[in-house]
Amino acid sequence: MNNTTTDYRRTLISLSNILDKKHFFIVGLTRPGTAWLQHAINAHPDALCKGEGHFTNALFPLLGKAFADYNKHMLNDQARLEAAGIGAANMSPSAAYSNDEVRFLMASAAALTMNRWVGDEDVSCIGEKTPEHALNLAGLTEVFPDAHIVHVIRDGRDEAVSVYDYNLRVNPEGFAKRFPDFPTFAEFFAGNWTKAVGQARYFGRSHAEKYMEIRSEDLHTEAAPDVERLCRFLSIDDSPDTVSHLVEAGRAIAFPDGAIGQWQDRFDDKTAVSFNRQAGELLKLLDYGI
């Protein structure tokens, strides 16, 4: 047995250990809120949480396309052999991958990432934070059916300000070409925010035992009750000392653009009307004033 085969076997054992642990995902279109919670729970001695793996919006779709292309190639190859008169007795079983096998390979790819994160740490819970998972929780839980989902919700108007300012910092020229001013972006973002929050909450209604919501605003005011609730949700230590430690870890990375009510200084009447046209009902449902 060569060294490569031995390494593969060791990796398979490691992946089995990773897949045996409890998995949770922090989602929601709020960069400040999800990052706060990720850093807080990552400070728990029995949990690890990193980001951003972009499983549902990058890794899984790319793998799915690769295997779909491969399956198509194999089916075409089989059709050519049959057309050439090669009987079924001379053909191998189909090499195409089933849906279950593709999901297994997706889980294995994600587990490889998690395995690098965990290293030698001994934890019972492994978490990952990607805000965009909120748009495809059904796809995420097809690959990780026992996963616990933590959905962080923030006033979409505040998040619109944060996302706009962030993109102007990291890609000012390209972003400004697409969105020449804040009102244009705010109207666009309202649709994305409504869709993401609505889809995640729809998922939560049919998976109540493995879904919880946390308001980003509460993390910046009185975080302890929600952090304690999260620990219970994950069945890990929720003692007062532990919760206090986690809250301090979250506060240590609090983003300046996580301010509550910052939209009021940036929304003019026209922007407010266009945002509310798409998101007003959801804002009211979530008890955000309009």
Write structural notes for this entry:
The chain is 60% helix and 9% strand. The chain has 290 residues and is of the alpha/beta class. It has a domain at 3-154 and 213-261: Rossmann fold (3-Layer(aba) Sandwich). It has a five-stranded parallel sheet with strand order 2-3-1-4-5, sandwiched between helices. The mean pLDDT is 93.
Secondary structure topology:
Blueprint (H helix, E strand, L loop, with lengths): L2 H17 L2 E6 L3 H12 L4 E5 L3 H29 L15 H20 L6 E5 L7 H7 L4 E6 L2 H15 L1 H7 L3 H24 L5 E5 H4 L4 H10 L6 H12 L17 H17 L5
Parallel strand pairs: 1-3, 1-4, 2-3, 4-5
Helix pairs in contact: 1-4, 2-11, 3-4, 6-7, 6-8, 8-12, 10-11
What is the number of E strands?
5
Largest sheet: 5 strands, parallel
Q: What is the CATH-assigned architecture of the domain at 3-154 and 213-261?
A: 3-Layer(aba) Sandwich
State the CATH topology of the domain at 3-154 and 213-261: Rossmann fold
Helix content: 55-70%
**Which residues sit in consecutive blocks of at least 5 with pLDDT less than 50?**
none
Strand order of the largest sheet: 2-3-1-4-5
The run of helices and strands is: HEHEHHEHEHHHEHHHH
- Could you name the CATH class of the domain at 3-154 and 213-261? Alpha Beta
Cα Rg:
23 Å
Annotation keywords:
5-stranded parallel β-sheet; globular; Rossmann fold; 290 residues
Short description:
By secondary structure, this protein is α/β, with parallel strands linked by helices.
